[in-house]
Amino acid sequence: ACMLCHRAETDPDTCGDKLEKFGLCAHVFCLYFATLLYRQDDDRVGLMGFLPRDIQLAVSRAAQKHCFICGQRGATVMCCQEDCDRWFHLPCAKEGGCVTQYILYFSSYCPEHVYAEPDVPVTPEPGTECLICMEPVDYRRTFRTMVCPVCKRAWFHRDCIQGQAMCAGLLCFQCPLCRDSIHFATEMFIMGIQIPFRLVEPTWEDNNAFEYLEERHSWCSARQCLYPGGREEEEEEGPWQLLLCSSCAAEGTHRRCSGLRNSVDSWECDSCA
């Protein structure tokens, strides 16, 4: 079992791989998130740069710390909010609604001190489904129900967007609706989603099963398309140039099909308007 979380089997998306060396055993992220456990510049020493004596000190320190989630001793992760004394085991974090940020400094926050985007709507429309699994989301924004901070229309389950992040990797990770990548990934990092960085293609579960996620909307969504070439054709400029919804980018229209002048460069679909 891992010396820091005391589990032999955990969710690899949460705790990472298990390392064994010098008679020590610990999960990668249990090491990174452990409070007051510091990594050396040379990752060839100890366990990925964590010295055996420092790991033993962290274990001894944690022996007197109770996890506020499971109640057991040995909690090594402390909430980073000043004056908060809540400790927990890393595998307990998701169950307890804690946010663990898988970016530099590896900060952790208990449910009372998690980051929240102030201008994001707190409730989805009735009947809203997760855009990834197509199952209903909670009736309000919770730890397990999240919304895209960019388009503010894409709702999804935390576990679903985490699964997509693990498959896509940082270079291909984006909102499943508006396709924003930079701001979306930044906010997901802050909200505790782990997004691995790799230079290889996304590890989709089936061959090209989610290839459509990277595709730009490319047809006219108007009730009646007037373009002689059809909905899927467009011109580079003029009345038959295809404009995408400036809010969601999930629908498009030729200027003429929506009665727009050639000088109009921005358009919103009926849902967003």
From TrEMBL:
InterPro entries: EPHD, PHD-type_Zinc_Finger, PHD_PHF7/G2E3-like, PHF7/G2E3_ePHD, Znf_FYVE_PHD, Znf_PHD, Znf_RING, Znf_RING/FYVE/PHD
Protein localization: Nucleus
SUPFAM superfamilies reported in the protein's UniProt record: FYVE/PHD zinc finger (SSF57903)
UniProt KW keywords: Metal-binding, Nucleus, Transferase, Ubl conjugation pathway, Zinc, Zinc-finger
Domain RING-type: 130-179
Gene3D superfamilies: Zinc/RING finger domain, C3HC4 (zinc finger) (3.30.40.10)
Pfam family, one: zf-HC5HC2H
Protein name: PHF7 protein
GO cellular component: nucleus
MF (Gene Ontology): zinc ion binding
Domain (PHD-type): residue spans on this chain: 1-114
Pathway: Protein modification; protein ubiquitination
Source organism (scientific name): Elachura formosa (spotted wren-babbler)
